[in-house]
Amino acid sequence: MTSAPGSPEPSLPEVRRVRPEDAARMRALRLEMLADAPLAFLETIADAAARPHAEYAARIAATSAGTAIAQFVADPGGRFAGHAGGTVSPSEPGLTVVYAVYVTPAWRGSGVLADLVDAVAAWSRACGRPELMMEVVVGNDRAYRAYQRLGFVDTGVRVPHPTVPVLTELQMRRPA
């Protein structure tokens, strides 16, 4: 976000771990994420919209505490401005997989992305996992460049997209 010359800089939203009471706001953000970037989040908007609220509530409650999986949101009050999650890697105990990273269009370029990734990184370190990894669809250059600016490095590893067979994802890593 930018301000007019001479005006104070707007404050960034609070970035925090989700809380059980965030379920409805998180559902609204999830639907926005899927509408904006349908290939990035491993489910269709129709499937997400059909999921009962109780499922969202259970998922948010499960990710609001613990060391195996966490979700973080950028909360300016009202609608969430962004999201990033982290989960353990079953094959690498020192690694957190970053997933479902999203910043709403109005907040892109404001620093919210860095704050969300930093929150996942701090959680990862606190859980004893010193490295982060994420996968980005090959050709999503905007996301690729944004993650490079945050210190992620392309490892050269390419994997098939989990739901769209014609797409490939690249793996990026950085210290937590």
Protein architecture, described:
- InterPro entries: Acyl_CoA_acyltransferase, Bact_Acetyltransf, GNAT_dom.
- The chain is of the alpha+beta class.
- It has one domain (14-175): Aminopeptidase.
- It has helices spanning 23-36, 45-50, 53-63, 112-126, 141-149; strands at residues 14-17, 69-75, 82-88, 95-103, 131-137, 153-160, 168-175.
- A hairpin with a 6-residue loop joins strand 2 and strand 3 (82-88).
- The protein is globular and about 40 Å long.
- The model is unreliable at 1-8 (pLDDT under 50).
CATH topology annotation:
Aminopeptidase
The CATH level-2 architecture is identified as 3-Layer(aba) Sandwich
Low-confidence stretches: 1-8
- The geometry reads as globular
Overall SS class: alpha+beta
Strand order of the largest sheet: 1-2-3-4-5-7-6
Count of spatially separate domains = 1
Largest sheet: 7 strands, mixed
Percentage of residues in DSSP E strands: 25-35%
Identify the CATH class: Alpha Beta
